[in-house]
Write a structure and sequence with these properties.
The protein has about 280 residues and is of the alpha/beta class. About 15% of the residues lie in helices and about 20% in strands. Helix 3 (about 135-155) packs across helix 4. The chain is globular, with a radius of gyration of 20 Å.
Length: about 280
């Protein structure tokens, strides 16, 4: 996987999760997305260098955009039936005041240059089109700085009692920076949940003083990496009336039992040519 392809919306998202199936519990449910290393590469070559396009997909406030996963205002060619896959920018926030909740999504891919597109096999051509790896790193570093600015801005303006910070990599969540930027009167009143993937595993990596998981690795079900089988599942976070939350990350309700996932080899049959 080295970026989204036109067929990916159906084969990798809508069909497996039933997002367009009226009988599915996930029908028309909004998905808040953030980009990871496999969302860049040769199949979406200008996602990490929109400046290199002959003509930008879109331009806002002088910033060019070139990612095929971004919302339709940034990518007019994105399929119309993908509106519930929400990715308005590399960094963004999504507030639900009625639930006393805010989600902050940030791009931290500058730290994984060699892993973009998976490895060199998934980014060699696009790196060349972008002017080399240094140019890609420069662009993504700027995106990351903008993401940190957003985190600090949202902390200073905080009103939500539960804040979810999501990005792709373990160890890259700026929880401490968010807490440090909170106004004094908000100290002790905000719960921050860090969630990320990259490692294809489903685990709670840390808990708060109430014993609730607030450091969630939810990369389960990603199909990686042979020969081992990673645990598949999702995290379920429930908001409570007192402004806090509960989190279920590893119970049988959200994770498949060990040994239930197996690798399936795809048999490729080629027509033989006879003289």
């Amino acid at each position: 996987w080295s970026g989204v392809l036109p067929v990916s919306w159906q084969s990798m998202w809508a069909r497996p999760y039933g997002t367009l199936d009226a009988g599915s519990p996930l029908f028309n449910v909004t998905w808040l997305a953030v980009l990871g290393n496999h969302d860049f590469g040769d199949d979406d070559p200008f996602a990490f260098c929109p400046y290199a396009q002959a003509q930008s997909m879109a331009t806002f406030a002088g910033q060019s955009y070139g990612s095929a996963q971004l919302n339709a205002d940034k990518n007019p060619e994105r399929p119309a039936n993908t509106d519930s896959f929400w990715l308005p920018d590399y960094n963004y926030h999504y507030a639900i005041p009625e639930a006393d909740l805010e989600v902050i999504a940030i791009d931290t891919n500058f730290q994984a240059l060699g892993g973009l597109g998976g490895d060199y096999r998934g980014h060699t051509r696009s790196f060349m089109d972008c002017g080399g790896p240094n140019m890609v790193e420069h662009f993504l570093s700027g995106v990351a700085r903008a993401g940190m600015d957003l985190v600090l801005q949202r902390a200073r303006a905080n009103t939500a009692s539960t804040v979810v910070i999501m990005q792709h990599y373990p160890g890259a969540c700026p929880r401490d920076e968010f807490y440090g930027a909170l106004p004094v009167e908000r100290h002790g009143k905000v719960h921050v949940i860090c969630t990320y993937g990259h490692v294809h595993e489903q685990k709670c990596k840390g808990k708060d003083t109430r014993g609730q998981c607030n450091d969630i690795l939810s990369g389960g079900g990603g199909g990686c990496c042979a020969p081992s089988i990673s645990s598949a599942g999702f995290a379920a976070v429930s908001l409570t009336d007192d402004g806090a939350f509960t989190a279920d990350v590893e119970s049988p309700s959200v994770a498949m039992p060990a040994g239930q996932c197996h690798w399936r080899r795809r048999l490729q049959v080629k027509d033989s040519v006879k003289d």
